[in-house]
Design goal:
By secondary structure, this protein is of the alpha/beta class. The chain is built from ten helices and seven strands.
């Protein structure tokens, strides 16, 4: 029987955060997601997870019961540099919904993530408002930009991470430290997949793909497809020997020209994001790639999750002097 801390996750997507929190010892009390393909992905990979296919704005958290952690990767378009950055004026802004749920559930901790654009000065007032609301409920709020490559993910993927802890457990939370190890390059990460259909150029390609990947861009329901992002992202992929205009259905075959740039497959993109090869994605190519590109790498979620789990399971001040942090960390 699983006796670890429990988590209710909103905007769960394809399960990047959920998988990482599972690795950190959390038990899923509920995963709320509105996209049907993402829900199918969650159910296919973890039949035992209680997946709730509905809009979080109308979600009733009562069936999930009391949980230790409320987590979620709320939609990023309101704060993304690739969008209009409307913030609170964007109807897709679900930070207030997550804060409202925290007020109803009163979990020991809250873990929300978004694009690094949320840390820009233009959103400083908005961040303060969120922090103030959480602090009025008895939470201490911290935020930091964490990069996936510091936690073993072969991708330059900075993310805004907010952690709020109830006063009793807050002193025992410490941000996860980088692994201190260089992540694998794109070539090292994908050589076996590039060569799985017998392409003789896989080893040569791997040697040239000698850096980590740029940020995978999943896009939204209205924008973005099965490609590797806007012009700047595609140029970065081109330097790694990858054609970013679209994704391939399969790895290069033996007749694929050595001088041509291969494309990534869904499985390759998922591995770049840090999903295990056993994780399957439901829906067509575009739907699957959006799930991958919009996910929080499991390794990052696991690192933050372990720090939270360690704190919320601390019942008595038995680990020496607690870590002291300011109540709110501005940009």
């Amino acid at each position: 029987m699983h006796t670890g801390p429990t988590v209710l996750e909103v905007c769960a997507g394809a399960g990047g955060m959920a998988l990482g929190l599972e690795r950190a010892g959390f038990r899923a009390a509920g995963l709320v997601e509105v996209d049907r393909h993402a829900c199918a992905t969650l159910r296919a990979n973890r039949p035992g997870w209680p997946v709730m296919e509905e809009d979080v704005r109308g979600f009733d958290p009562a069936p999930a019961g009391r949980v230790d952690l409320l987590a979620g990767g709320v939609p990023c378009p309101p704060f993304s540099v690739a969008g209009r950055q409307l913030g609170a004026a964007d109807e897709r802004d679900l930070f207030p919904v997550a804060v409202r749920l925290a007020g109803v559930i009163r979990p020991k901790s809250v873990f929300l993530e978004n694009v690094p654009g949320f840390a820009l000065s233009r959103f400083k007032s908005y961040r303060r408002q969120l922090a103030s609301r959480l602090e009025s409920m008895g939470y201490r709020v911290r935020w930091r930009i964490l990069n996936a490559c510091d936690h073993g993910v072969p991708q330059l993927r900075p993310r805004f991470v907010l952690v709020a802890m109830q006063e009793r457990w807050s002193p025992y939370f410490a941000w996860p430290e980088p692994t201190g190890l260089a992540p694998k390059t794109v070539g090292e990460t994908l050589m076996d997949l590039m060569g799985e259909n017998g392409w003789p150029g896989a080893a040569e390609w791997s040697d040239k793909a000698s850096d980590i990947a740029p940020t995978l861009v999943g896009g939204s329901k209205n924008h973005g497809g099965a490609d590797l992002g806007p012009t700047r992202a595609r140029e970065a992929w081109k330097k790694l020997g990858v054609n970013g205009l679209s994704l391939a259905d399969a790895a290069p075959d033996p007749d694929f020209p050595r001088a041509s740039l291969p494309r990534l497959t869904i499985r390759m993109a998922a591995r770049i994001q840090g999903f295990p090869d056993s994780w399957s994605f439901c829906g067509g190519k575009t739907a699957a790639y959006r799930q991958i590109g919009n996910a929080l790498p499991p390794a990052v979620a696991a690192a933050v999750g372990r720090s939270i789990a360690s704190a919320v399971q601390e019942e008595e001040p038995s680990r020496g002097d607690p870590q002291i942090e300011i109540r709110y960390q501005p940009a």
